[in-house]
Amino acid sequence: MTRFLAALLGMALAAGAATASAQSITVALNADIRSTNPGVNRDDNTDAVVLHMVEGLVGYRANGSVAPLLAESVERSDDGKTYSFRLRQGVTFHNGAPLTSADVLWSWNRYMDPKTDWRCRSDFDGRNGLKVEKVEAPDDRTVTMTLDHASALFLDALARTDCGGTAILHKDSLKPDGSWDKPVGTGPFRFGEWRRGEYVTVSRFDGYQSPPGDKPDGMVGAKRTALASVKFLVVPDASTAKAALASGAVDVAQVLETDVPELNKTKTVEAGFFPSTTKHTFLFQTRDPLLGNVKLRQAIAASLDIPQLVAAVSNGEGKPNNSGVPVTSAYYDAVQAKGYAYDPAKAKALLKEAGYKGEPIKIIANKRVHVPSFNAAVIAQAMMQAVGINAQIEVLEWVTQLDRYNTGNYQMMSFSYSGRLDPALSYEQFSGPKDSQPRKVWDDPAVQDLITKASTISDEAQRQAVFDELHKRQMEATPLIIFSNGQEAWAHTKRVQGADPWEGKARVWGARVVGN
Amino acid sequence: MLHFVFKRIAMAVPTLLIMAVTVFVLIRLIPGDPAALMLGDLATPASLADLRERLGLDQSLPVQFGIWFGNVLRGDFGISITSSQPVLPLVLDRFWISARVVLIAVLLASLFAVPAGMIAAWRQNSGTDLFLVGTATLLYSIPTFWLGLLLLLLFGLELNWLPVVGYVSFSEDPRAALLYIVMPVMTLFLHEMGVLIRMSRASTLEVLRLDYITHARAKGLSETAVLWRHAFKNAFGPTWTLIGLVLGNLLGGIAVVETVFTIPGLGRLLVDAIFARDYPVIQGCLLFVAFVYVAVNLVVDLLYPVFDPRVTAE
Amino acid sequence: MKRLSLNVVLGGAIIGIVIAGAVLGAVWTPYDPLKINFVARLAPPGAAHWLGTDEFGRDVLSRLMAAAATSMLISLSTVAAAGLLGTAVGLVSGYARGWTDRILMAFNDALLAFPAILLALGLLTVAGANSSGIIVALGLAYTPSVARIVRGTVLSLREREFVEASRVMGNSEFYTVLRHILPNCVGPMTVLATSMFGWVLLAESALSFLGLGVPPPAPTWGNMLAGSRPFIAQAVWLGIFPGLCISLTLLGINLLGDALRDRLDPRMRGAS
Question: Which chain C residues are Cβ-neighbours of B138 within 8 angstroms?
């Protein structure tokens, strides 16, 4: 982009950047947010914006473990069923009201009310296994929650970003008639204005009390912000976002992988790749007459030069990972690093053993942006064809592919799972009984037991042993081929520092404006 | 006159009714569940059931239709599944964005193309005619999405005169808005020039062949007088009808131009809604387009007598 | 007439080349149009790849040829489908008249009130975005225009002497339609079919461009053009050649269509 074009775009888009004070930045969203109501009507953009304004009792660290957020400490009873949250002192809501255990109770009751439509209600009312039986507030600063059985994942579920972090809200978030108004939370930013289809603004909450830490760490760590305000600008088109970065109209944006080298050539922009726990995979339907044969699945795995495939879909930046444990996880070590080996000769031998006679194998893929589905499928097809597998690609609309995914109606599919920080949750995403949940790919009762074990015990060494065992079994059974975790391309202008995204979402409380 | 208006409106009612049913049934036949789409791979059977209930998708189709159609009659087009915005304001907002581009382009194209077509007809088979018809056929043969891409390459990337993609509203920054709108308008303008020159030439030729022109010529009227007083005046009527048709068709075809230039217009809204299975928005868009189409044709028909003295509204 | 022959020569030459390319593309292409070659990624036009390669290193010329075959096949089948269905509806409606006519035409007009591309867009998502889905969707979307024209022709013919005569002679309705009315629809139908071929080609490209047409990796001109957008600044040829193919083919069809109209539609003789 030349300067002239940049200037034009600047005039067009930079109204905010030009007029606001120095400590203000503009972040591009590739779609408008769906609501400001945490965990109700949401997508990734919504979570990203909302989590700048609200906080829950606990939050994720970057390595996937859960840390206290509004809580100062969390204690678990010996039987693992009762959690006691001690609230931090001096925390206030955006309206100045102090945070008390009554607010936690109110928020919880609101979430568990079916009328709220909280998307995670079924994870806590027993419908998905776990049930919170009792929530009490023994004093102003203490909340206890009692579960029906011990679980290592209860805190994870509370911290989940798609649940809105189970944010604690003030009653003023609702209108007098009980409907949603705006988030009155405890986050580092307070809600400003939402012009639908155009932008959302938030401004610094001066009364903010940060959790301990010297730098941002996932959703916890140092969260007090130097920024006076942030404008989340809706820029649906990737090429517009790119031009806007070059002109300085936008400071932070997700960009296309293929645009990173070009952006890094410009003087004012810095682009890079940021890992997330998203899993990019090829799923197999193990009930397919053909792919039910483990030898054939192993042959496909051996036919794929995964490092080359990953390099091709991530512009050389991605790191291969065949394990259900994300590379960023505290549980990722030497065992998980041992993945499939590219071995065409072995692939051909396995094909012979499997009795494969050139039957077509259809790979379903979609063409969404920021997801390597189609590109990965095209490359896998070429690699599979090279060893004599008659691979074909069927491109479907994403919604149609989801339908096929949910019903298990496919042979092979290039599919990306959204991020799960805890490995047990990550394995749970693709493992389970196909009879009751056709979308699951790995149907093995022994595996189910292992995952349940990892979900119940809290000892880290014991959990590590379970995850190691799961990895070995997954490599053997090959119900799916995970090829990498997410590598999202983001760029920011050089006037802004510390605006690194987290888990594919913009996170700018640690950002500072260093120049103009 | 009033009788004619009522008759035309009455004729449009069954058309719109059939369309409402067709649209509703058609999009329910599309595979894919909007609730599943919103929850993505995070869906659990329980959360899916909750959401389907909230969106009213758990009701039977006739019940859903009854509710929707009843609301439409009251002017309530429902609420978008994905953005939870009311559909009608959303559609109107986006419509104005599209309409601005389309109206400017068609207006400009008519100003140039209608006289050009008449001249071509008047000088039929001359060099001028050949040139005009040749140019028109060429312009008409280039699809708008490629023409747009070419303009974008030339003025946006090669010469750097105009911003490449995006949209700025006039209320925000009129100057920038104008710059952004130039290329989309130019694309449609060039294409519609091709269409309209051919149409205007054809209708003028037809008039020129009519007996009364021969008669007028035989009366010894000057060629200019024949053309102005008889031919062009009468040729404009049919051309006017065609401009109406062009406007209606453009609303359908604008989606591609909006995709090329990433304009958040009605076409883009519809295509995005189809991808998202946002039933209320798809229904609202299609019904609105059909309504505009019928309305434009109605207005054109009503104004026809103004341009064509041979026809009276009675 | 001078212009007529120019139309025929130019249009015929263009369409001839396109058809030749399509036929050749169906049996032979310089490279496998789906073959990936990462070494030659985004190679500009040159000796090895005359029209360059795309982001997967696939040969653009080979893909254009394969796409020509696909597009021609889709357009022909669609025109045939719409022509047959539309003629059937038009004949029944025009000949039966009365309530049958009124109901059929009410539906027909309602469908006509949608811009065809929108109707196709809706139908396509129902039928599924693949070659047969496109034929079904576009075929149905263009049926109303055919039905309307055939019905008009039938209405104007049925009162004519030779039709009356056939009826008076005791021939069955069916025979009369088949023997006397249908042949007279051929003229206007040919003119319509030619234009329709162009519309369908355009619609198919437009739908592919919107991401709703023939799904990749199988090439069509429309999806090649759509796929070129992210690379347009680095690899201009990816955007130029598919568009050129679409435009030239449409130009050829329009020129031939004009010539055909001049010859077959005496009312329009001399008009463009």
Answer: 251
Residues A196 and A292 placed together within one structural domain of the fold: no
Residue A219 contacts residue A211 (beta carbons within 8 Å): no
With CB atoms and an 8 Å threshold, state whether C217 touches A395. yes
pLDDT above 90 for A377: yes
Q: What is the 3-state secondary structure (H, E, C) of A477-506?
A: HCCEEEEEEEEEEEEEECCEECCCCECCEC
pTM for the predicted model, two decimal places: 0.81
Which amino acid, one-letter code, is at A296?
Answer: L
**A397 with C129: Cβ contact below 8 A:** yes
Q: Min CA distance, A395 vs chain C (Å)?
A: 6
Compute the mean pLDDT over every residue in chain A, rounded to the nearest whole number. Answer: 90
Average pLDDT over residues C199-208: 88
- Domain C6-31+48-264 sits in CATH 1.10.443.10: no
pLDDT value of position A11: 43
Distance from CA of A33 to the nearest CA of B (A): 8
Helix (H, G, I), strand (E, B) or coil at A114: helix
Nearest-10 Cα torsion for A6, A12, A16, A17: 10
Nearest Cα to A218, choosing from A381, A144, A119, A328? A328
CA A162 to chain CA centroid, nearest Å: 8
**Residues C8-49: pLDDT tens digits?**
889 899 999 999 999 998 888 898 888 888 777 888 898 888
Average pLDDT over residues A296-313: 94
Contacts of B275 in chain A (CB under 8 A): 397-399
From chain B, pick out residues whose CB is under 8 angstroms from the CB of A11.
173, 175-176
Domain B87-313 fold is: MetI-like fold (1.10.3720)
Query: With 0-12 CB in 10 A as exposed, 13-18 as middle and 19+ as buried, what is B153?
Result: middle
User: How far is B98 from chain C, CA to nearest CA, in Å?
Assistant: 15
Q: Bridge partners of A139?
A: A142
| A444 and A426 part of one domain | yes
Instruction: Determine the average pLDDT of the residues in B26-30.
Output: 78
Q: Are residues A177 and A219 in the same domain?
A: yes
Mean pLDDT of the region A308-312: 90
Q: Does B153 touch chain A (CB under 8 A)?
A: no
- The least confident of A346-355, C99-108, C146-155, C225-234 is C225-234
**Between C182-209 and C60-96, two packed helices, what is the crossing angle to 10 degrees?**
140
Domain enclosing residue A233, as ranges: 2-251+495-513
In this structure, are A201 and A330 located in the same domain?
no
Structure tokens at A155: 């805190």
A399 and B163: CB-CB below 8 Å? no
CA distances from A417 to A321, A335, A376, B213 (A): 14, 22, 14, 73
Q: Which positions in chain B touch C243 (Cβ < 8 Å)?
A: 142-143, 146, 149-150
Per-residue pLDDT, C259: 85
| pLDDT score of B166 | 65
CATH number for the domain spanning A107: value is 3.40.190.10
More confident residue, A336 or B56: A336
pLDDT at residue A198 in the model: 81
The predicted pLDDT at position B309 comes to 57
- Distance, in angstroms, between A96 CA and closest chain B CA? 30
Give A5 or C124, the one with higher predicted confidence.
C124
Mean pLDDT of C180-197: 83
Q: Is C208 on the interface with B (CB under 8 A)?
A: no
**Residue of chain C minimizing CA distance to B24:** C122
